[in-house]
Amino acid sequence: MLKDSRAFGSFSVNDIDQAETFYKEALGLEVERNEKMGNILTVHTGGDAHFIIYPKPNHTPAEFTVHNFMVKDIDETVNGLKEKGVPFESYNSEYLKTDENDISRGGERGPSIAWFKDPAGNILSVVEEGKS
């Protein structure tokens, strides 16, 4: 029934202006604001993909990754985002460890991944495609 439908994800933020600035300037993405629909943001990524960010005054960030960005070179991407002031999460548990550059190296367990948060506390990640 839905196999041929186009889909998109969405999540909330507590400050739409701050989110717009972060996604445009720090992440370098194309962002459109729709004032007629309550100032929702449409964030465009590769191809015709996009996701929606909407303002929510009582926003509570999820405790899981809400969006993943596939990248060709995770080290280059992480370093570039850090240069723009994006702090990355560091993990050191029996289930998840990140290295000195805040990257979980996949190896046999899957792709390499690094996590960061937007200004509203939403967890995002960059995932290195094609390597494991």
TrEMBL record:
Pfam families: Glyoxalase (PF00903). It comes from Mucilaginibacter glaciei. Residues 5-129 form the VOC domain. This is VOC family protein.
